[in-house]
Amino acid sequence: MTQIVAEAEVPTTAYDYDGHLEYGESYFWRVMALEPVPSDWSATFSFHTEAAPPAPPDVTPPPETPLWAWVVIIVGLILLIVIIVLIFRMRRR
Fold first, then answer.
1. What pLDDT is recorded for position 46?
2. What are the CB-based long-range contacts (under 8 Å, 24+) for 7-13?
3. Taking the model in full, what pTM does it have?
């Protein structure tokens, strides 16, 4: 009980700590009644905080589609349209 995180006098049997506790640390606590008659310190109790959450993964954007791939796609679409037009012209004859 050398590094005191909080010390408080409360009118009830409950205490709500609104500070920050470190991840993966052990903390100890004890109480003493002040009224109606001051008491000795209670037994010492402890709790352990959870481990720190893992760091979020690096989100790297997917690589952009290279220009040559777009050219191949466009040429393929043009060839497909030309073939479809030729097929329909051949059927009309």
1. 93
2. 9/34
3. 0.53
pLDDT value at position 44? 92
Terminal alpha carbon distance of the chain: 100
Point out which residues pair with 47 in neighbouring strands.
27
Instruction: Please name which of 44, 22, 41, 21 lies closest in space to residue 32, comparing C-alpha atoms.
Output: 41
CA distance readout (Å), 61 to 55, 58, 64, 65: 18, 10, 8, 12
**pLDDT at residue 92 tops 80:** no
Distances (CA, A) of 88 to 74, 82, 85: 21, 10, 5
At 26, give phi and psi (nearest 5°).
Answer: -100, 135
